[in-house]
Write a structure and sequence with these properties.
CATH class: Alpha Beta
Helix content: 25-40%
Radius of gyration: 15 Å
CATH architecture: 2-Layer Sandwich
Number of domains: 1
Family: Belongs to the peptidase M15D family.
Strand content: 15-25%
Order of helices and strands: EHEEHEHEHEE
CATH topology: Muramoyl-pentapeptide Carboxypeptidase, domain 2
Largest sheet: 5 strands, mixed
Catalytic activity: D-alanyl-D-alanine + H2O = 2 D-alanine
Keywords: Cell wall biogenesis/degradation, Dipeptidase, Hydrolase, Metal-binding, Metalloprotease, Protease, Zinc
Distance between the termini: 19 Å
Shape: globular
Pfam family, one: Peptidase_M15
Number of helices: 4
Structural class: alpha+beta
Organism: Wohlfahrtiimonas larvae
Number of strands: 7
Length: 186
């Protein structure tokens, strides 16, 4: 286990956790993780905590879809769908997720728990998932901008092809990490 990774829970960080990779609600159609656990590099956790506080101040709460991703999970994803527009090639530099400095997030109303409209589901491999795609509702465009503003202000960079993906600007300065707490299914 990597000592650089810290676990975030719904209780410890006042977030919602909805990890489709721990069940079959993902693009592979099967569970990839044995457990729905949110792990982040300790540096990323500090920045995400800042984002969580900003969201809370405007009546919103984060939904975490994915965070740290073991390198072997990235290989499973790549073997299933080798699409460099949506997945980092694990044969090259690997994924920012596998370094613990990327997080896939959405926002929900803090009172009702209802997710905000973002125009596409999480992990949709369609052009409508791109930040600059305006073929989604005005409400979804506004919500994406709110999410981007919060995350950018907290110190994260966005990935232009996925409204949900945020990572460090200097992501590749962090090493790939091996941690088995998610229990990747092979």
């Amino acid at each position: 286990m990597s000592s650089d990774l810290v676990e975030l829970t719904e209780e410890s960080h006042d977030i919602f956790i909805d990890m489709p990779y721990a069940d079959d609600r993902n693009f592979t159609g099967k569970p990839v993780y044995n457990k729905a656990r949110v792990l982040l590099h300790k540096d990323a956790e500090i920045k995400l905590q800042k984002a969580i506080e900003q969201a809370k101040n405007i009546g919103l709460k984060f939904i975490i879809y994915d965070a740290y991703r073991p390198p072997k999970a990235q290989f499973i994803f790549w073997e299933h769908s080798p699409n460099p527009d949506f997945l980092a090639n694990p044969h090259k530099r690997g994924s920012p997720h596998s370094r613990g400095v990327a997080v896939d997030v959405g926002l929900a109303d803090i009172v009702t728990g209802q997710p905000l409209e973002m125009g596409t589901p999480f992990d949709s491999f369609l052009p409508e998932s791109w930040h600059a795609n305006y073929n989604v509702s005005i409400e979804a465009q506004k919500n994406r901008l709110i999410l981007a503003g919060i995350m950018l202000n907290a110190g994260f960079d966005n990935y232009s092809h996925e409204w949900w993906h945020y990572q460090f600007f200097n992501t590749y300065e962090y090493p790939l990490l091996e941690d088995d707490r998610l229990g990747v299914i092979e």
